[in-house]
Amino acid sequence: MQFLDQFRGNQLVTESDVAGFVWQGTPMRLMDRQRGIRKPRQLSAALTFRTVFTPPDGVPPYADQEGPDGFQRYKMRGDDPEHAENRALRQAMLHGLPLIWFVGVERGTYLPIYPVYLVAEERELRQFVVALAPEQRYLLGVSDAGNADDVRRYADRITRQRLHQPMFRARVLAAYQQRCAMCRLRHVSLLDASHILPDGHELGQPVVPNGLALCKIHHAAFDQNIIGIRPDLQIVVREQVLLEVDGPMLRHGIQELDGRRLEVPGSPAADPSADRLEVRYNDFLAAI
User: Fold this and answer.
1) Residue ranges of the chain whose pLDDT lies below 50
2) Structure pTM?
3) Which of 32, 33, 168, 266 is the most buried (most CB within 10 A)?
4) What is 2-172's CATH topology?
5) How far apart are CA 138 and CA 213, in angstroms?
6) CA 101 → CA 74, 110, 230, distances in Å?
7) Is 269 within 8 Å of 55 (Cβ atoms)?
8) Contact present, 152 and 70 (Cβ < 8 Å)
9) Nearest to 259 by CA among 232, 285, 234, 281
10) pLDDT for position 60
């Protein structure tokens, strides 16, 4: 995990990035190209597990998902709970060992989430329960009706912070080739993944068609209804802002966007959803 810390600035890693890991003078693979669960021969328990990339319009090969209690699930290998790889994960669970979860955001590119812990096993469903933070490990035993809702809300918040938000950002920026959809700025540290519709909306899921890669100033202008986007991808600047006189940032950075077409991935699966844009544009018009 200390080895992976060096990639935190970029967030994402490739298989070649992690191929250089060495433990006690011996190279150790952190990912297996053919399998999702990695137990190095030097260890008695699993070290990492992986969820492969699924295109925005694709169906994941494994049904890894969030459970009704707010905790993530990770599917076992195959139908046999006693498969060697499942036993390796079980050993990590029984001994409370921290694991690394590589979540695919592009083909061959992963977001490493760590440390995570396996805190329970649902053998009949062939899956493990995953805690995404050390403090989340202790929530699963709290089951009385008086605080079950509080536990769920807290688990949901941790899941958003440690999985959904980083995954949403990584996948949106990858789809937009690491550049702002309005001004084409490529400085990744200055880019955000903006939601077209917020989390609380019925269409506000953290998926690429509900996202836009925007630099921080255009993200703020979009959120504040200074800038709107029509369903046909034309950018609209609020009329009173067009009449303002200020410095070059307002003129070149905001006003000159009016009438320009939004830059999008160009893939029907990744392009912003026209339905979502229409709802958001109506909100923009109502705010004028």
Assistant:
1) 143-145
2) 0.78
3) 168
4) PUA domain-like (2.30.280)
5) 36
6) 10, 9, 38
7) yes
8) yes
9) 234
10) 55
Partners of 51 in the beta sheet? 103
- Nearest Cα residue to 70 out of 147, 176, 182: 147
* Structure-block tokens of residue 136: 């989340």
List all residues 6 or more positions away from 240 whose beta carbon is below 8 Å from its beta carbon. none
Q: Tell me the DSSP string of the chain.
A: -HHHHTTTTT--EEHHHHTT-EETTEE--SS-SS-SEE--TT-SS--EEEE----TTS--SS---B-TTS-EEEE-SSS-TTSHHHHHHHHHHHTT--EEEEEEEETTEEEEEEEEEEEEEEGGGTEEEEESSGGGGGTTT---TTTHHHHHHHHHHHHIIIIIHHHHHHHHHHHTTTS-TTT----GGGEEEEESS-TTSTT--SSGGGEEEEEHHHHHHHHTTSEEE-TTSBEEE-HHHHT----HIIIIIIGGGTTPBPP--S-TTTSPPHHHHHHHHHHHHHH-
- Bond preceding residue 115 cis, omega within 30 of 0: yes
**Interval 121-161: pLDDT, tens:** 999 999 999 998 877 777 766 544 456 777 778 878 888 88
The radius of gyration of the chain's CA atoms, rounded to the nearest angstrom, is 22
Tell whether the torsion through CA atoms of 70, 72, 125 and 119 is positive or negative: negative
Do 189 and 168 touch, CB atoms closer than 8 A?
no
pLDDT at 145 (0 to 100)? 45
> Residue for token digits 């790889």?
85
Residue type, 90: R
What does the pLDDT look like over 76-95, one tens digit per residue?
999 999 999 999 999 999 99
Rounded CA-CA distance 257/183 in Å is 8
The ranges assigned to domains in the chain are 2-172, 180-287
What does the pLDDT read at residue 141?
Answer: 61
